[in-house]
């Protein structure tokens, strides 16, 4: 009788524990779903604002390009100065719009890095769910009995062994390529995973040991592998904006040089009649004050 009561009490305790755990999981999953939906709405609004800014920047760049590519000839100094002032205003406008787009893009990329994935709901472990009365076999013990090492196990699931990433030198040294050789040489790249704390993005450090003759050298770099497709798309858009801005600045510099040269030429042409009139006046004065030695007009001009 006592055995039966104890068994019923144990079953009731296990059932209550399971119901509590399932209720907690459902509540946390609902909270995560609600938060994820709110974050998705904010991402949609920020993305819409970002791409509207990119569209506005594109129209501004087209307007600036039409002015920077212009080859109109100016006829006065005032026109040249007015066009130069317009060029400076357009450059300030396009740089300000580009900076605004960059700020929105960087903020959106940083926010996407903190967005809660919809599929990441807390799942109870086997011991939390079933306790010590689990009727199922313990996968951890089964896996550890095979190899005797549980360092690569996570909740009873064996993780695959890390694969070696092939570098550019591996392709050169491959026997399938021309001039390749078997095995690793001294010039192979060292590819290793950089140590990172919990919560940081995994990174790869690619450090070349030696540059072979005839190959273009490259610097060591750290490449982040944790970017989502949305983040990569935004970064690509920002890169395109930078390239377009650099092209516009080259056109701006060329047009500014043209207008500055035209202004100087017009100023010189306008100053020539004044200088000529001054020379004529000085020549007339010298002829009136001609001395008794009978020097000619040219001699007076060059000896005065």
Automatic annotation (TrEMBL):
Region of interest: Disordered: 117-212
Protein origin, superkingdom: Eukaryota
Polar residues compositional bias, start-end: 141-150, 170-179
Name recorded for this polypeptide: Uncharacterized protein
């Amino acid at each position: 009788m006592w055995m039966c009561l104890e068994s019923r009490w144990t079953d009731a305790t296990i059932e209550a524990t399971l119901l509590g755990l399932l209720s907690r999981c459902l509540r946390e999953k609902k909270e995560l779903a609600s938060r994820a939906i709110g974050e998705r709405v904010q991402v949609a609004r920020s993305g819409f604002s970002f791409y509207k800014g990119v569209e506005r920047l594109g129209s501004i760049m087209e307007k600036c390009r039409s002015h920077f590519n212009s080859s109109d000839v100016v006829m006065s100094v005032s026109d040249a100065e007015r066009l130069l002032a317009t060029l400076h205003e357009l450059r300030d406008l396009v740089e300000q719009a580009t900076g605004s787009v960059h700020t929105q893009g960087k903020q959106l990329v940083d926010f996407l890095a903190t967005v809660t994935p919809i599929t990441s709901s807390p799942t109870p472990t086997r011991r939390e769910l079933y306790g010590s009365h689990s009727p199922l076999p313990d996968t951890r013990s089964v896996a550890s009995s095979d190899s005797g090492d549980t360092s690569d196990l996570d909740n009873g699931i064996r993780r695959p062994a890390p694969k070696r990433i092939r570098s550019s030198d591996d392709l050169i040294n491959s026997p399938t390529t021309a001039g390749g050789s078997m095995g690793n040489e001294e010039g192979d790249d060292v590819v290793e995973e950089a140590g990172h704390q919990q919560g940081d993005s995994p990174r790869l450090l690619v450090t070349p040991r030696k540059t072979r003759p005839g190959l273009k050298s490259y610097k060591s770099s750290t490449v982040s592998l944790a970017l989502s497709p949305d983040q990569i798309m935004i970064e690509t858009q920002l890169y395109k904006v930078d390239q377009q801005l650099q092209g516009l600045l080259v056109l701006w510099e060329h047009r500014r040089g043209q207008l500055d040269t035209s202004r100087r030429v017009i100023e010189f042409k306008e100053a020539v009649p004044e200088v000529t009139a001054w020379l004529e006046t000085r020549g007339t004065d010298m002829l009136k004050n001609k001395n008794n030695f009978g020097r000619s007009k040219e001699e007076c001009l060059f000896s005065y």
